[in-house]
């Protein structure tokens, strides 16, 4: 650890008193005379790391500061080098993790995401890393997931002995494959032109708007929401983030739509979405991501963990609630757009 501390001290203009591991070999808390910081080792290649830091720096340039801003190296670069990784030092954020079961928290996170997207508008990366440029690629991604489900179904059907996971998968796979096909077909009618138009204007998505990537700092009855962890940032429709946020809220609340509708109303009221963007959100929520993920984990990754074993039966138990929620959301979006 002493060697590591020395190496980091040589990279940054801070006076380090100690470093505490938060995630082994990945994330540390840095205690310095100048304050507290978070240090990450990014295992990505140079151009991909550059995309991430380009996106983060762009927010500050646009006046958005409610995120973990980068602390530059002594050489005034966003990252340093350590071994085969890049170092990313950022300001430590303080606050509590929001709950997607609380209306005020949901509204505050939706407002923060809207502010982030407004700041991210017009972003064109200096480091044009192809795998982070997702404009126009959603149909191919969803089509691939649908093909996975069909392949799994053919393989499982041939198994002489089927366990409970297999039986649950076979009981619902035809239904979810049909939903995936419907989502892909509907997207084909408008998504290519929508994505092409938005690509010309630029922008990026956080790509992981989970509750654990936000902090709420409450001071004098005012909620200041901060967002962090841009490791998965991509150039794509902002509606991608909105769909992900709504889906996480829906699942947290077992497909009760009230708080998802609240989040949409707050976001849409601050940064209005076009009808085609809203339709994109509907179809991404409809697509059976979780069902495909559980099947992929079991049949491709050979993950036999208890968590995966329980996930698919839980999804099938919630299937009816999910369908009712999708219908309610479609009606709500049609009224609000």
Can you describe this structure in just a few lines?
By secondary structure, the protein is α+β, with helices and mostly antiparallel strands. It has helices spanning 2-11, 46-61, 103-120, 138-157, 164-188, 191-201, 238-252, 258-270, 275-286, 289-299, 306-317, 319-336, and strands spanning 16-23, 27-32, 35-42, 80-82, 85-91, 214-219, 222-227.
Question: Can you tag this structure with a few keywords?
Answer:
single chain; 337 residues; alpha+beta; Phosphorylase Kinase, domain 1; Aminoglycoside 3'-phosphotransferase, Chain: A, domain 2; 2 domains; five-stranded antiparallel sheet; two-stranded antiparallel sheet; 12 helices; 13% strand; globular
Percent range for β-strand residues:
5-15%
Overall pLDDT confidence: 95
Shape: globular
- Rg to the nearest angstrom? 22 Å
**So what's the CATH class of the largest domain?**
Alpha Beta
How far from one another are the termini?
55 Å
In N-to-C order, the SSE pattern is HEEEHEEHHHHEEHHHHHH
What's the number of helices?
12
Helix content range of the residues, please? 40-55%
Q: How many strands in all?
A: 7
Spatial strand sequence of the major β-sheet: 1-2-3-5-4
Structural class, from helix and strand content?
alpha+beta
By CATH, the architecture of the largest domain is named Alpha-Beta Complex
- CATH homologous group name of the largest domain: Aminoglycoside phosphotransferase (APH), C-terminal lobe
CATH topology of the largest domain: Aminoglycoside 3'-phosphotransferase, Chain: A, domain 2
Task: Characterize the main sheet.
Answer: 5 strands, antiparallel
The low-pLDDT segments are: none
How many domains, as an integer?
2
């Amino acid at each position: 650890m002493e060697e590591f501390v020395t190496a980091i001290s040589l990279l940054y203009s801070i006076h380090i008193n100690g470093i505490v591991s938060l995630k082994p070999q990945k994330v540390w808390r840095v205690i310095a005379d100048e304050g507290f910081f978070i240090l990450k080792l990014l295992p990505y290649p140079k151009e991909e790391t550059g995309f991430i830091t380009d996106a983060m720096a762009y927010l500050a340039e646009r006046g958005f500061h409610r995120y973990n801003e980068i602390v530059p190296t002594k050489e005034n670069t966003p990252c340093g080098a350590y071994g085969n990784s890049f170092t990313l030092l950022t300001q430590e954020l303080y606050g509590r993790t929001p709950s997607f079961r609380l209306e005020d928290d949901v509204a505050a996170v939706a407002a923060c995401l809207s502010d982030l997207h407004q700041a991210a508008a017009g972003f064109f990366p200096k480091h044009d890393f192809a795998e982070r440029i997702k404009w126009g690629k959603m149909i191919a991604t969803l089509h691939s997931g649908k093909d996975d489900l069909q392949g799994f179904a053919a393989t499982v059907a041939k198994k002489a002995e089927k366990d409970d996971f297999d039986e649950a998968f076979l009981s619902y796979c035809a239904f979810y494959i049909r939903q995936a096909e419907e989502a892909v077909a509907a997207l084909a009618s408008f998504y290519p032109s929508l994505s092409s138009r938005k690509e010309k204007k630029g922008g990026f998505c956080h790509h992981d708007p989970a509750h654990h990537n936000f902090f709420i700092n409450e001071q004098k009855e005012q909620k200041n929401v901060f967002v962090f962890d841009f490791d998965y940032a991509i150039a794509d429709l902002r509606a991608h983030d909105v769909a992900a946020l709504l889906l996480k809220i829906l699942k947290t609340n077992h497909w009760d739509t009230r708080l998802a509708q609240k989040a949409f109303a707050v976001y849409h009221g601050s940064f209005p979405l076009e009808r085609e963007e809203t339709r994109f959100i509907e179809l991404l929520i409809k697509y059976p991501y979780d069902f495909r993920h559980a099947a992929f984990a079991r049949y491709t990754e050979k993950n036999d963990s208890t968590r995966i074993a329980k996930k698919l039966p839980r999804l099938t138990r919630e299937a009816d609630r999910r369908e009712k929620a999708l219908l309610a959301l479609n009606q709500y979006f049609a009224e609000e757009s």
